């Protein structure tokens, strides 16, 4: 029969665990299935994601590209379980998350036929409990003290396996919301290992300018001595049937006295070296290989005095041959090596306006606004589907009253990306200028963008840059109280502005598309029609009187409680069919419908009644899986010839 291992001291009374009892009953079942009489009330400790062995083949189509493992506890014991693919949607909408409380109504025990004595528990059905953080977790002092259901007397393992997925074929987890960030102890384990530095003689090295000749003659080149000039974010290229344990790739631009060249870090070497290879580090490379450079990729802008070799790139492989890397300590770097210094292009805010689109700059500023983290789906119907995470940031540099508007994508620096907050010093390198018709200029990340905020600036090469020193002197003249009044966090940030035209879409198709939205994802659309009623609903968690419908009477008021959730019922211009309620919801802060950038407000419903006789208002919506925000945009000049609203 299954037994439990405990980290509790001897003599400590062991409480009866409903979860452990259910797992024992499951292991003894002939059908390997269990439906408890009373659903198991457990808390979710962790939700972990990895690439499914057969992505896209399940009933949910491309949504099955990833599988999820859950670690759950009842406060006494814990177990890692596999989530049935049909329940993945609960993770996509953040209904199932760490800290949530769930009721598990059906379990099964799955034996892995390809591995002897290996099995795992699968959650077949569960229900998410309403409310915030689980009361079960709040009663747990330490996760290490919980009982673990690891094995039975026959040796069948259903252990926690903290370092890897339960299902065969995958050896590591992915970050929950994107593929660019390193996740799990398998990365951290190598991060703090001590580097071994090898002795070498400078007479046996070759220059980057010589590598093209070596590649043409298919001759193994001599070792290299280079400096890292630029570093790209991680790229995960895993596929369902790709037999590579760690399918990662990272590009570096390295340079010596003869010029610059791309260096590619492959697969297992990314785990060991990616987080240790920083910009400015000096490397001694041996047993590397050469190949023709991949031309269809973005490249950072390098210094004008350096020659760029784009036809060949350096490959550091984990095998055939196994590349040997050594990091040279800064105190051992000799001037006679003539390695170029890392250079930056810090551009003040006053000069950014004069730059052309797609030009690359480096910026430094004091953060005044940080938006929520959002996700955008990768273009194309790729399998597995990929998401990028990003956030909008405003930063001042003292040269202009206008801030930098920054669209910062995750750059494989989760500890920095998550720590961006107002009143911190932010440095962003290799940002690209974006100009869109009808909107102000903004800067967006490139593949080589690196971000640094307060607490991460130490020993960075840019500290000696004159523009950085001037910025630091400016910040010393600021008064914290005055600057804090200009700061903001979160909220809805609509940028760039919506396009002048939208692609027509049927309501049925729109419903399917909106229901497929995942956590932190949004979609823009415009709806034109008559406003016929406004219905107020209680905000979640608030107990109020039943909602009432405000019809378009002359004396009805649009002002409702700030704790109300409004729904608009519209009649479309073409069909005169009410738009389904799931389409239109107003966030509490937008109950007073904002017209023309918050300059016009509907203070009375008679105003709306008069408006209906003149033209059709245009409703602009941004749909989020967290909430839905409705914003009203009225084109008065085109439809009435003049504004009669004041």
TrEMBL record:
GO terms for molecular function: single-stranded DNA binding. It comes from the Eukaryota. InterPro entries: NA-bd_OB-fold, RADX. This is RPA1 related single stranded DNA binding protein. The lineage of its organism: Eukaryota, Metazoa, Chordata, Craniata, Vertebrata. The gene is RADX.
